[in-house]
Design goal:
The protein contains four helices and three strands. Strands 1-2-3 form a three-stranded antiparallel sheet, covered by helices on one side.
Amino acid sequence: MAYAEKTKVPVSQSKGDIEKLVNKYSRDQRADFAIMQRGAAVQIAFVLCDRNILFRMLVPEDPQQERSMWRALLLTIKGKLESAERGIETFEDAFLANIVMPDGRTVSETTLPAIESSYRGNDVPLLPSY
């Protein structure tokens, strides 16, 4: 069974809950925060701990699955923030894949091709020089 598979929480409430959560952990009590959507493609961006964070996802057409996905995203962000808050890992470690690099790509988007190449036996740097 998928997380929040039967949730009745509206998408708009989940989006608001995510923004409230991010603001709760913001040093300024009001983080830079945005949700951008074009069709099924969604980007959730915010700034915390002087880092630009970006989540990208494709929302399903089925309204129930979409509600479930937004609840799962809330859980994901909350888990990462709590892990950093309690010292289980650093903020950077918790959000590493979602940190936006100077070229606009996330660390994940920047490193995954190099990681794949490395697993194929090639010696390549994970990150470009900035």
